[in-house]
Amino acid sequence: MRSLFVKIFLYFLLIIVISAVIGIVLTYSRDHEFPPMGHKHFAKQALAEYGRAAVQIYEQGGSPALETYMEELRQTADVHVFLFSARGETLATFSVPKRIGRLIKRMAERAFITDKLIFSERRELPWMASPLSSSSGNRYVIVVGLPERPALRHIFKAMPPAIFGSRALVILAVAALVCFFLARSLTSPIRKLRQATRQFAGCDLTTRIGPEIQGKGEFSDLGRDFDFMAERIETLITTQKRLLQDISHELRSPLARMAVALELARQRSGNESRGALERIEMEAGQLNEMIGQLLRLTQLESGIGSYRVERFDLRALLRSVVLDADFEAGGHGRNVALTACDPVFVEGAEVMLRRAIENVVRNAVKYTGEGTTVEVSQIADPQQGQVRIAVRDRGPGVPEESLEKLFEPFFRVADARDRESGGTGLGLAIADRAIRLSGGTICAENAVGGGLLVSIVLPISAAGSGRLK
Fold it and tell me: Is residue 249 annotated as part of the catalytic site, yes or no?
């Protein structure tokens, strides 16, 4: 049982059932332990009834009949009856422990002398004695011993049949209903808070839980704390994104002016400064590319900008990306090959997904070994409703502890190597955001035999995969 609601519901119901059973057992035990102690009138009446029956049986049938009557009471009701004459003689033989025998005779003597109802002085022994007279005028003393503790076999016999019938079902149904609402009232705020946490973790920073948890208590306090935390995080992240976007926009203008000034400087300078100017141009171009990627990343994360969502041929897009990448990789002694490509349609922003796949493939080309081939494959799984794009390079791979961080902005496995290759640490982060906005996922792992394997999973279009020519 993993559900907190089910656990609380069953625990409450079990407590009610156990309490009911304990109450029944204790009530039965209490009623049979020795109720006459508190009800002398009832005790006297019971003794009179047992006494009249015993005297009548004795006077009509003698000691054998009385012994039979005593044995029947002991077997059926676990009640011991002993009859004494006025001289203190036992009128029927009986077999009891010596301590009980002495108690019985002592109580009979006291009852005859005092002519009153006598109870046992030992409360753990529910015995009583009383003098009585028969219709013939003879005097007797009756001693009755109740069971010290009710036998378990008598508990269910003593219960009315209705306890196990429709009334029991009604009681159980009412208890279950009460437990259901009680458990739901306890777990409902937790369920709402869990749902809000998932929404917040899914980048819905406007999620709030306070209005849904009313009243005062620990759960409402927890809801207010969650809202306070969510508001602070939303403010921080929104401010960060706005600052990053504003800085990126503001940097574009001085870069444009720098490009104009650089061109003028190239026209007026001689050959001596050409190398330095080319270096400035290269660094400015790289800075401009980084600013463009920052703007693209902030747009993807904040939802700024519109992208046309349509159903398109993923195989055609992948072929085009691989063809362009192979052309670029050829100049560096590397290749890109499409090893498998199933016909499939997907829905999404084609331009955005193309950039995401290009970033992954170009990253693989950047780090694959010279003279090796980056392998790209696309395999559709119509039963699962998804298509998997795999991009594998033949490079050094990535340390296991860095795999999950590859898609974080500005993360570098090795700063010196990435800077040397011109990497900005934004390409895979942009790919991750773009693919997630299209309902897909992206992950990386070290391939068997060396190299990095990046897998992109996208949902197939509702129209399904088609036969393309």
Answer: yes
